[in-house]
Amino acid sequence: MRALNILQSWGKVLWGHTPLLSIEITRECPLRCPGCYAFGDNHLGGGVTLRELSDKRGDDLVQGVLELADRHKPLQISLVGGEPMVRHRELSRILPELCGRGIYTMVVTSAVIPIPEEWMSLPHFTLAVSVDGLPEHHDIRRHPATYERILSNISGRRVNIHWTVTAPMLGRTSYMEEYVRFWNAREEVHRIWVSLYSPQRGEQSAECLSPAQRQLVTRELPRLRALYPKLLTPDGYARALQDPPASPRHCTFSRLSKNYSADLRTRVEPCVLGGDPDCARCGCSASAGAHWVSEIRVAGPLKAKHLLHGSMYIGNLMARLQRVGLPAWAEREAAGSHPDTHLVRISTE
Fold first, then answer.
1. Global pTM value
2. Rounded to an integer, what distance in angstroms lies between the CA atom of residue 176 and that of residue 103?
3. Is 258 exposed, middle or buried (0-12, 13-18, 19+ CB in 10 A)?
4. Which of 62, 197, 254, 300 is least enclosed by beta carbons within 10 angstroms?
5. Backbone dihedral region of 323: left (phi > 0), alpha (psi from -120 to 50 degrees) or beta?
6. 3-state percent helix, strand, coil for the chain, nearest multiple of 5
7. Does residue 194 surpass a pLDDT of 90?
8. pLDDT tens column, 61-114
C-alpha cells in the first residue's frame, strides 16, 4: 500500500507537472520574527526584498493564484507569506476553488488572525500554525501572535502545529518534551511536526544549532514520538534531519517544487528558503520528509527515489515533446546547475 501511494503521488511527474507549489501570497506581516527567511535581504536574490515587492490583492490575487495552479497542475499548494491571513478574504475565495480541483492545499500562518470556521469543512485542506517554542521564547519572537492569541484563534478548529527549533530553546533538558506534551494534549491539534532552524550560508546567528544540538534533537524525536502520537516523525525522518541533502540538486523537495513570491511572477530559488541556504545545516521539515520518502523501499532493493528519478527523466522528455513549460528539476538542469554551485537564479514567468 505504501508503494502504491508513492506511485500515485509521483505519477504526475511523468507528465512534467510540478508536484509541489509554494506561493507567498502577500508581502505584509504584523510580526517581526528574528531569523525569518522570507524577509531576509537575500531571500529574492538581493535585488529586491519581499517587503519591497509589489504584491496583489482582491480579484488580481485570486485570479493570479488560480492561474498558477492551472499552469503547474500541482499535487499540493502551500500558501505562505508574509502572513497569509492578512488576505483572509481572498483566501476564502481561493481555497474552495483549489480544493474543488482536488489539489491538497495548506495555509501556513502564525494564527495572529482568527481562522474562518468554514475552512474546516473544505476537502484536501490543512492549516499549519507556526509556534516557535514555549511561551517564554515564542511570545517574544512572534509577538503579537502570542500563545493566548493563538489558542483563541484556533479554538474549535483543526490545525497542525509546526515548530522550528532554535538554539536558545535547547538550554533545558526537558524543553522538547514540555512543548510536545502541551500541543499533543490540545483537542484542536491533529499533527505536530518539527523543523530545525535552517541558516543561510555563513550565518552565525543566535538561532543556529550546533552539531551537538542537532544530534540532541534527532535523538529525542523518536523517543517523544513513542510517547506522544500526534508528533509526526516517521522512522527515518530523524536520520534525514541529521544528514540533509548536500545541495539543492540533491534535495528531492527542492527539485520537485516551484516557489513564487508575492507579485506571483518572481521565483524564489533554489527552494522555499531562497537566498543562499546552507544545505549542510538545513533542518527543513519538507526537505527531510521528502528525503525520507525517497529512501523507502518499494520492492526489494528498489527505492522510491529510483522510481522518482525515472519519472523525472520521462517527465522532462514529455514536456519537451509537448512543447510545454519544463518542470522544476528540468529548468534547473537546463540552466546548467551543478551540485556545488552557489549561484541563486531568480527568474520570472
1. 0.85
2. 33
3. buried
4. 300
5. left
6. 45, 15, 40
7. yes
8. 999 999 999 999 898 999 999 999 999 999 999 999 999 999 999 999 999 999
Cell of 250: 540533491
Least confident window among 133-137, 196-200, 306-310: 306-310
C-alpha grid cell for residue 306?
Answer: 529510483
Q: What single DSSP character describes residue 259? A: E
State yes or no: cis peptide before 275, omega within 30 of 0. Answer: no
> Taking a C-beta distance cutoff of 8 angstroms, is the pair 192, 231 a contact?
yes
CATH architecture of 17-296: Alpha-Beta Barrel (3.20)
Give the Cα separation of 256 and 271 in Å (integer): 10
Name the residue ranges covered by the structural domains of the chain.
17-296
Compute how many other C-beta atoms are within 10 angstroms of the C-beta atom of residue 38: 23
Query: What is the rounded distance in angstroms from the CA atom of residue 193 to the CA atom of residue 168?
Result: 19
| Nearest alpha carbon to residue 115 among 127, 131, 132 | 127
